[in-house]
Amino acid sequence: MFIKRIAIGIGFSIFIIVLLALGLKRASQSEWENWKAERQAKGDKFDISSNIPNKVPDHQNFAKSQFFAPLFANDIETPEFNEARDRFKINKTIKHDWRKGKKRNSISWENAFFESDLAQLAEDLKRPHCRFDIQYQDGFEAQLPHLSTIKNIAYLFSIRAGEKLIKKDTIGAMQDTLNVIQLGEQLRLEPFLISQLVRISILEMSLQTFWEGQVNGQWSARQLIAFQEKLRDIDLLKGIELALKLERNIANQWFRNIIQEKKGSEELADMLGLNLNFSARYFLYSNQYQINKIITEDILSGIDISNQKVSAKQIKIAEKKILQLKNSLLPSRYAITLMLLPNCEIMMLKISQAQTALNQANIVAALERYKLKNNKYPKKLNNLQPDYISRIPGDLFHEKDLIYQSNQDSSFTLYSRGFNEKDDGGKFFIQNNKINFSNKGDWPWPKIAKD
After folding, report:
1. Quick one: angle between helices 170-185 and 193-215, nearest 10?
2. Are residues 292 and 381 in the same domain?
């Protein structure tokens, strides 16, 4: 009798646990589906197909250059693939420390082998579109073999630009610099986070050469105009918006594959140490809801593309919410959320400081044009409009303008208050020999560093 009572008690407990699990599953599924329906009514789309760039004619497509075609025409690790991937790889490291006011160390262009290739690539860059044959439906498994190749090519153009600048070939140096910018912008519509980060890395290479020529007073008015025309429409905030939406929607496909088709469910269960049966699906729906809600309502809402602003406050709120999940009771409930969400503060700092640098470079080009004509810098940035610049970019983080002043030593000071939104006197905060873009210091356009 006693054993029978125990069995009944255990059976009842199991029944209650199953009912509770089913209730949690239904509640979390309902929470996710209701929220999704509300966002769809506002125009949001949650499938990968909405993120795929349109196809373009081959003859107008830079991605169909002979140097990239083998990366998508062959299986990975075939001889043809490896040759295309490594074609522009060189064993040379030159630091791009222009932000610290440092010119590159001595540059020696020893790669005559690449001259004909770079000439062909410069011609290919005249094609108006770029769309690589990425298998977007593969989600997190999608291969992006072109990124390292395009970055290596940009590096070669950048090295050659620096060497030409040293030899006073400013026309060639500027053309190579414009080619670097154009290479970076081939990725502007590619909605992967890593693609946008590679884009930024390439654009920063171009700023090294521009800065070196600017502090040496080497650029002509015509070259400065050409540089401004390339920079004018670069929008890194739009790029990161595309990337965040794709990251979110790839995650949705991944959840759908596990929940509906059970693809990858065993691997996930082994990794998390969980039994992902029907009664435990609340765990998946809950994580799917958190990922979508944080990216859509907390991170993306901190990016104002139309006004070119970033809300540092909103980004910190998003980071705080992620930290709350990490420190919550049983944080393993949100293991997938914490695994798939990007570090939004680091990501937005990277995007923001790069966009600020590009905006500053555009203004600096206008300042140098003004000086070439008037033998001095203007007293106010407003004096640049409309003859030298059509629109003066403001500070990304608030409604105020970038801080500017013309100095008595015929120099100028130009800086953003940065992520902390405080005026720290126009100096970077250097920590462990690295610029800390986060909590201290401003983001200035640099002068030549003193030894």
Report:
1. 160
2. no
Question: Which residue among 290, 319, 342 closes a domain?
Answer: 342
**Tally of helices (H runs) and strands (E runs) in the chain:** 14, 7
Which residue reads 């000439």 in tokens? Answer: 119
The predicted pLDDT at position 147 comes to: 97
Q: Which residues of the chain have pLDDT under 70?
A: 1-26, 74, 106-112, 261-282, 451
**Euclidean distance between CA atoms 177 and 208, whole angstroms:** 9
Q: Would you tell me the crossing angle of helices 146-166 and 170-185 to the nearest 10 degrees? A: 160
Instruction: Tell me: do 365 and 309 sit in the same domain.
Output: no
Boundary-marking domain end, from 310, 342, 374: 342
What lies within 8 Å, CB to CB, of 277 at 6+ separation is none
Question: Considering just the CA atoms, what is the radius of gyration of the chain in Å?
Answer: 26
**Phi and psi torsions of 320, nearest 5°:** -65, -40
CA dihedral 54, 59, 61, 65 (to 10 degrees): 140
In the sheet with 443-444, reading across from the earlier edge strand, the strands are 403-406, 412-416, 443-444
DSSP string spanning 203-248?
A: HHHHHHHHHHHHHTT---HHHHHHHHHHHTT--HHHHHHHHHHHHH
Q: Using CA atoms, how far apart are residues 52 and 192, in angstroms rounded to an integer?
A: 10
Query: Which of 209, 205, 236, 235 lies closest to 223, judged by CA?
Result: 209
The secondary element (H helix, E strand) that includes residue 69 is: helix 69-73
